[in-house]
Design brief:
This protein has 6 helices and 6 strands; from the N terminus they run E-H-H-E-H-E-H-H-E-E-E-H. A 6-stranded mixed beta sheet has the order 1-2-3-4-6-5. With about 250 residues, it is an alpha/beta fold. The longest helix has 17 residues.
């Protein structure tokens, strides 16, 4: 039997001095969006390595590394890079990535591709400050035509809908997780939802987490708040919901 899954992790490093941390994130984004030097931009170099890995995984000639599913797990700037790259590949295509659905946009790939993001800055940061570059996230950025205070919390049980569209990125499912106090990236589809559960009890693990979906049968979009916290600690013992969701994406 083919291997069930290969998963890729993308994240930014942690600055040891907390006073430099937030400015470090801004500088990371500035460096990523830089357009010089023309022959060797940071974005191009990052994408070259990323595509090289995807091509390696999509190469079905070696049966020892033939996969049924690939899960990309991305945090912070890694989530931004992943979204940009997948959007580009879906639009432009790559013959060597046909097995994962990027050879021809009309042909479904043999290998499922799933995206699991957390602390994703594309809505709260990139779409607001670079609206023309990130129009695929939202046509109208938050705080553009109305004050953020006018946002109404999405009620529990309401199906997710709208942008960003997972199909534009060529993924079979896109799961986004966030902490209520993440100052870089929170929800992509939910508005002002800051609870881990949908009411009752303490709201702490192991109470079942509330996961919003666009449909229950075969969701394209899933989103969950894993509780209080900021931009770090998505991948340690304080975030068991992340581990459980990753298992779910790999096995089901």
């Amino acid at each position: 039997m083919a291997r069930t899954c290969h998963w890729i992790t993308c994240h930014r490093g942690f600055s040891g001095q907390i006073g430099l941390f937030r400015s470090g994130i801004v500088l990371d984004v500035d460096n990523y969006l830089r357009t010089s030097p023309k022959e060797k931009t940071p974005r191009a170099r990052i994408v070259e390595r990323y595509v090289s890995l995807l091509r390696y995984l999509a190469d079905g000639r070696d049966k020892d590394r033939s996969y049924d599913r690939i899960v990309i797990m991305a945090h912070s700037l890694g989530a931004l890079i992943s979204g940009d790259l997948l959007l580009y590949l879906r639009s432009q295509g790559d013959p060597q990535l046909g097995r994962i659905g990027f050879g021809d946009s009309k042909v479904k790939g043999e290998v499922e591709l799933r995206l699991f993001t957390m602390g994703d800055p594309v809505r709260q940061f990139l779409n607001r400050f670079f609206p023309y570059l990130y129009e695929w996230v939202r046509e109208t950025p938050d705080n553009a035509l109305q004050d953020l205070g006018a946002l109404v919390p999405t009620p529990p049980g309401k199906p997710l809908a709208g942008m960003p569209d997972p199909e534009r990125l060529g993924v079979e499912r896109w799961v986004n997780a966030y902490r209520s106090g993440d100052y870089i990236g929170r929800s992509l589809w939910l508005d002002e939802w800051h609870n881990r559960t949908n009411g009752g009890g303490t709201g702490a693990f192991p109470q079942p987490i509330y996961v919003a979906r666009d449909n229950a049968a075969q969701p394209l979009r899933e989103e969950m708040c894993i509780g209080a916290g900021a931009h770090q600690h998505y991948w340690d013992q304080s975030a068991p919901d992340i581990a459980q969701k990753l298992d779910d994406l790999i096995c089901r």
